[in-house]
Amino acid sequence: LIFTIGLDTLKIIFVGEFFILLADFFQFFLHLGALGVLRFLLLHCAHNHLTCLFLQISLKLLFLFFELFYLFFGLLGAMLRFELARDVVKGLEECVKVHFFFLLAEVGKSNRVILPIICDVL
Fold first, then answer.
1. 80-101: per-residue pLDDT in tens?
2. Which positions, given as ranges, span the membrane (predicted)?
């Protein structure tokens, strides 16, 4: 399969999977934030109310940043996976066409009556 899909498609696979992994990395921090672990650590390190408020706002902005990167890299990886799937299907389609036409040629050699019927069905 590697030889049929080509080197460019392999690059797409690796880049797409890298972006999916990067999106999962940001999703890990989002889940960590949803659990409140970082918020708990940051808020308990703050000594006054203003620092707590500043840390809380910056933490929310940080998680918004993580969410945007998660969505961006996830979408980019999914688009590359779709591109890969389309290339693989196109390559398999060409293989099937070639084998099917060889089969039609063999059928046509052996039986001249079946060939027009098969061509009409296609």
1. 767 766 766 676 666 666 655 6
2. 12-41, 61-80
State both tokens at 106: 């063999």
Nearest residue to 56 (alpha-carbon basis) of 41, 71, 70: 41
Instruction: Report CA 46 to chain centroid distance, whole Å.
Output: 40
User: Considering the chain, what is the average pLDDT of its residues?
Assistant: 65
Specify burial of residue 14 (Cβ count, 10 A radius: 0-12, 13-18, 19+): exposed
Q: Which two tokens stand for residue 107?
A: 């059928």
d(CA 60, CA 39): 9
Per-residue pLDDT, 64: 75
State which H helix or E strand residue 70 sits in.
helix 49-110
